[in-house]
Amino acid sequence: MKLFHLRHVDWIDSQLIYHAQPRVNVEGINILAPSSPYVCIGYHQNLEQEVDLDYCKSNNIPVFRREVGGGAVFLDGNQIFYQIVIHKDHQLASGDKTAFYQRMLQPVADTYQELGIPAKYRPVNDVITLEGRKIAGTGAAEIGDYFILVGNLIADFDYKTMTRVLRVPDEKYRDKVFKSMAENLTTIKRELGYIPTWDEMTEPLICHFEQVLGTLEPAELPQNVYDQMEILKPEFESDEWLFMKRRSKEERKVKIATDVNIIQHAHKAPGGLMKAVYELKENKISNLSISGDFFCYPRKAISDLESNLEGSNLAEIGGLITKFYKKTEFEIPGITLADWVKVLCG
After folding, report:
1. Which of 8, 51, 214, 266 can bridge 35 by disulfide, Cβ–Cβ 3.0-4.6 Å?
2. What pLDDT, on a 0 to 100 scale, did the predictor assign at position 260?
C-alpha cells in the first residue's frame, strides 16, 4: 500500500484528499495535519443546530461537512491525521465494521503505548487511556467502492475554542461541556508533559500500521487526486452541501391539531446520539428526518430508511426496521433495533 506522508497541508485539502482518492481509485494511507484551524461536522448532522456559525465567521474559522459520520469537532495543526483509503475487496476490509475498526485502531493504541502513554482500543471506535479518557478521534465511511477510516493523534487540544464553536443553549451549559471535555478527553501533552516532534509521533504510527497493512511504500500523491480535489471543492464549499437538510434537536411534542403533532425525540445509543423529528397524523409518520453523530454504512441508507417509514403506523416501526435491515446492507455500529424504537417512538 502507498504511504502519502504529506505533513502540513491547507485546511480544506486535509479533508478533500481522502474524499478524492476513492473517486479516482487511489488506495493508500495519508499522514498529514491542517495548516490552519477549522470546524468539521459529521455527514448526518444539522450544521445550524450544532455549530455557532456567528462565532466561527467572526473568528475566521471555516466549516466543513465531511462524508464521514460522527460529531462536530475543532481541528488544527496539533492533531496528526491518519486517513486510510482501502478497497472493499481488500482482505483487511472483510468482516463487519466493528471488526474493521478494531483492526485499524489497534496500531493507534500501540503507537500511544510506544510514546509512553498506556492506551487501548475500546469498541466501537475509541482509543482511550487506561484511566478511560479518550485520546483519539476516529470515524469511518464508505465512499464508492472504498472504505475510509480517519482519525488523529492528539498532540494538544484547544478545549476552549472547541466548546466555543459549538452551539449550546446558554453559557452555563457551555461551562459544563468544557468541564466534561477536559475531564474525558486527553492529549499527548497532558499525558507526557511535552509534545514530541512530528517524526517521533509519526514514525511509530507508520511502523504499527505496517504491521496490519503490510509494507507501506512512500509515494507522492498522484496528480489525478489533486485534479479530483479541485472538482470536489466547489460542491463541498457550497451552502447546499453545508446546510443540507437535517432538523431536530430537543425532545418535544408540538400539537398542531387534534390528530396532528410534530414529534421530536433524542436518544443516546452506544453508537452515538440519535435524533428524529416527524409529523404524526392519525398515528402515522410523515416528513421524517433522522440526524445525529453516528456512523452509517452506506451513508445514504438513512435517507432510504426515512422513505421506507413514510406513512407507517408507530406500532409497525419495529417490524419495518427489521425488514429494512434484512433487505439492505445497512450497518450502524453500536445501534440496535431497540435504539431505533426508542428514538422514533419515545
Report:
1. 8
2. 66
**Cα separation of 259 and 282, whole Å?**
5
pLDDT grade, residue 245 (50/70/90)? low
Chain-centroid distance of CA 220 in Å reads 27
With cut-offs at 50, 70 and 90, classify the pLDDT of residue 279: confident
Asked if residue 48 lies in contact with residue 14, where contact means CB atoms within 8 angstroms, the answer is no
**Helices and strands counted in the chain (H then E):** 13, 16
Half-sphere CA count of 185, side-chain side, radius 13 A: 20
Cell numbers for 7? 505533513
Q: Give the C-alpha separation, 166 to 35, whole Å.
A: 22
Q: How far is C-alpha 40 from the geometric centre of its chain's CA atoms?
A: 9
Question: CB-based contacts of 203: which residues, under 8 Å, 6+ apart?
Answer: none
The total of other beta-carbon atoms located within 10 Å of residue 80's CB is 21
Place of cell 510506544: 114
> Using the 8-state DSSP alphabet, how is residue 169 labeled?
S
Sign of CA dihedral 10, 137, 140, 297: negative
Which of 239, 251, 240 has its CA nearest to residue 278? 251
Residue 35 C-alpha cell reads as 495548516
| DSSP letters for 124-137 | TTEEEETTS-EEE-
